[in-house]
Structure to design on (740 residues):
């Protein structure tokens, strides 16, 4: 797995944050384990320093290193679960204290709880787990030392350097096909006459698209077009790549504009002065290919000499990141995938040396199947075609058509390095969020808000963004969209898709930790199912016990998400209480449980044992009530009950859910009463509806505490609701939200 090291680095960063948290350290001191946790932190830091070398060794097919990395990944998740157990115990204690205060009870001194039976059992179980973890971590360190892994000296992995694409030039791509409309549109932007009122500032045209979509090839065609040559006085091409070196880029452009000028050993001041002279009062075109820079200072420094040019000068940049276009103050030109006809023409050219299959009709069907795997990416089309260059045997073509793209020979596979760069450029806080998307099957339409809630429940949104995790999630999601890793669905503007090859990249990064039944069951993944931490399930009309058996062995599973196919003919699935209880009783570390659109009438009591659960979605089910045990889920942050039309009441004691932020009871017409003390849920950020009744606990005064809370919201008033009801009759509603 070529990128496992990078994923592990992101996971270790989470452990470092938790091990340094004041709450955990305070808990550890009371339990006498703070010294041990500090020792673990030091050991993990040592491991973190050798991960780059471990990646190199793994890529060199070292089975021992591969095994070590797998063991390390499993241990990191288990340590994370253990630290969550500590946090859970602390939260339970806090909840009991706050509940007692809110009801006016006197509190016993904290010392009275130290010798309780539950505390004693907790200590016994935890100390046993701690000993086990400590032993495994010691083994990991011993194994690491025996592998003689080198510590990172600040340089990137040797394989990272090898993966970097070759520098591009302005020479056009052979066999370039289609893009006629796109080329003409950009030529129009480059050469159209500007009126006298137009600002002299240089116009920037960013060509934006995912890796391998053909941005550079299109820019080369435009650069070499006769219209461009005759329109501009001067042209220059610079391949920027991931290292935005202002001096090197300036030197490259200057070398193009002054072929006989020696630039060796010259500083930036000298280079920019000379470039300014060369460009003075000339109408120029500069292409900056493959730009990743997001630092405004670097951009403005590079542009200083360009201000001397004549009106009508232009700069084209190619980039995967629309934020780069924003940095340049320009509207992005998004490049889409190739049409099917263009793909076939490109494939025929690189595989057969011709532009069609007229002379090889027996290969056309296989060719179309191979091209279909590429999903419109010219780079993928060229790579697969190159593997078949001069090969005319249908058996060889059949082998390529059935292989995964990632399983192609490494030395001839340009697709992985090209897409891997998109992952390498992600900040650590986005890497795990991206990898989490491995749970989605290909062509699945992703709902943004739902995914953000899952990220939050998995603890992927913690960090510098503050306490409002949902806002942080919006920023993360928008960042992945801007980097061309998500694309808007053409059929539903509120949903998003991952390109098939980007989906493959997420699965490659995540490895066996992510499991999707229906996509993996025929691919040999079932043997590694016990390693899974996140799993999805494509629902069908009838759920049979056999289909759920594979999940019973996933003891460390954190997410179990039922995904619904977006189809107007989908009518829901049947799931019995026994089958659900059998499943949940084995998955005690779940953070996310989503069972939307199921015919579920009763939720089993065993759900109350899922003490780590943060997100519970039972929307569009037939439940009439929730079990009382649900109030034991102290960590629960989101309870989603949208369109549960038979729901009549919420469980008593909900005020114990002190971490609850989202309570969605939209479209629950039979809900008759709100529970007592719901006003004590001062952390609520969204309450979709409040039913006003005559019973205690369902009166408007319950909203008093919610209205004045200033906890986690960006707004001074935290509680937001969409509707008030008087025993099912709306007395207030607003289309969006009412604050306070």
């Amino acid at each position: 797995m070529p990128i496992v090291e990078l994923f592990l680095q992101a996971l270790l960063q989470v452990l470092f944050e938790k091990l340094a948290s004041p709450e955990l350290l305070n808990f550890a001191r009371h339990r006498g384990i703070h010294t041990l946790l500090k020792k673990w932190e030091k050991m993990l830091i040592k491991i973190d320093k050798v991960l780059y070398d471990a990646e190199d060794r793994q890529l060199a097919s070292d089975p021992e290193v591969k095994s070590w990395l797998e063991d390390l990944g499993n241990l990191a998740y288990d340590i994370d679960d253990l630290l969550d157990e500590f946090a859970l115990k602390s939260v339970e204690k806090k909840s009991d204290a706050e509940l007692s205060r809110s009801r006016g009870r006197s509190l016993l001194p904290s010392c009275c709880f130290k010798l309780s039976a539950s505390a004693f059992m907790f200590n016994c179980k935890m100390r046993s787990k701690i000993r086990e973890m400590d032993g495994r971590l010691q083994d990991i360190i011993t194994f690491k030392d025996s592998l003689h892994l080198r510590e990172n000296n600040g340089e990137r992995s040797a394989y990272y350097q090898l993966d970097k694409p070759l520098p591009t030039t302005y020479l056009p791509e052979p066999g370039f096909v289609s893009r006629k409309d796109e080329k003409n549109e950009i030529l129009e932007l480059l050469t159209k006459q500007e009126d006298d009122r137009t600002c002299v500032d240089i116009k920037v045209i960013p060509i934006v698209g995912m890796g391998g979509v053909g941005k550079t090839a299109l820019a080369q065609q435009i650069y070499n077009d006769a219209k461009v040559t005759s329109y501009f006085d001067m042209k220059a091409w610079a391949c920027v790549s991931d290292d935005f070196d202002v001096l090197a880029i300036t030197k490259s452009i200057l070398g193009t504009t002054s072929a006989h000028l020696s630039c060796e050993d010259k500083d930036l001041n000298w280079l920019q002065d000379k470039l300014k002279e060369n460009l003075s009062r000339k109408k120029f075109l500069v292409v900056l290919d493959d730009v990743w820079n997001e630092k405004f200072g670097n951009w403005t420094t590079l542009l200083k000499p360009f201000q001397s040019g004549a009106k009508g000068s232009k700069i084209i940049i190619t980039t995967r990141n629309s934020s780069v276009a924003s940095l340049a103050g320009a509207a992005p030109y998004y490049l889409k995938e190739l049409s099917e006809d263009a793909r076939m023409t490109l494939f025929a050219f690189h595989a057969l040396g011709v532009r069609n299959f007229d002379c090889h009709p027996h290969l056309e069907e296989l060719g179309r199947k191979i091209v279909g795997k590429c999903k419109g990416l010219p780079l993928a089309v060229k790579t697969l075609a190159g593997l078949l260059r001069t090969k005319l045997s249908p058996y060889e073509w059949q082998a390529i058509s059935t292989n995964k793209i990632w399983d192609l020979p490494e030395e001839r596979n340009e697709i992985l390095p090209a897409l891997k760069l998109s992952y390498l450029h992600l900040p650590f806080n986005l890497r795990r969020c991206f990898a989490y998307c491995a749970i989605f099957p290909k062509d699945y339409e992703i709902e943004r808000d739902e995914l953000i809630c899952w990220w939050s429940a998995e603890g992927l949104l913690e960090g510098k963004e503050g306490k409002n995790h949902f806002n942080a999630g919006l920023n993360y999601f928008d960042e992945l969209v801007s980097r061309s890793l998500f694309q808007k669905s053409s059929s539903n503007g509120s949903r998003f898709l991952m390109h098939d090859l980007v989906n493959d990249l997420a699965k490659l990064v995540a490895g066996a930790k992510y499991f999707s039944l229906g996509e993996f069951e025929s691919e040999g993944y079932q043997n590694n199912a016990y390693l899974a931490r996140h799993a999805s399930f494509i629902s069908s009309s009838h759920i049979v016990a056999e289909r759920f058996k594979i999940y019973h062995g996933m003891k460390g599973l954190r997410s179990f998400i039922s995904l619904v196919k977006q189809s107007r003919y989908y009518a829901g699935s049947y799931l019995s209480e026994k089958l659900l209880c059998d499943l949940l009783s084995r998955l005690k570390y779940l953070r996310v449980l989503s069972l939307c659109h199921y015919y579920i009438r009763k939720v089993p009591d065993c759900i109350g044992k899922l003490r780590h659960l943060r997100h519970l979605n039972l929307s569009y089910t037939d439940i009439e009530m929730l079990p009382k045990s649900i109030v034991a889920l102290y960590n629960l942050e989101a309870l989603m009950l949208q369109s549960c039309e038979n729901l009549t009441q919420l469980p008593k004691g909900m005020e114990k859910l002190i971490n609850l932020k989202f309570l969605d009871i939209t479209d629950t017409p039979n809900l008759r009463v709100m529970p007592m003390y719901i006003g004590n849920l001062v952390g609520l950020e969204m309450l979709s509806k409040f039913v006003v009744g005559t019973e205690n606990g369902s009166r408007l005064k319950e909203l008093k505490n919610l209205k004045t809370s200033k906890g986690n919201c960006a707004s001074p008033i935290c509680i937001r609701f969409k509707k008030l009801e008087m025993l099912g009759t709306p007395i207030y509603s607003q289309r969006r939200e009412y604050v306070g």
Notes: The mean pLDDT is 82.
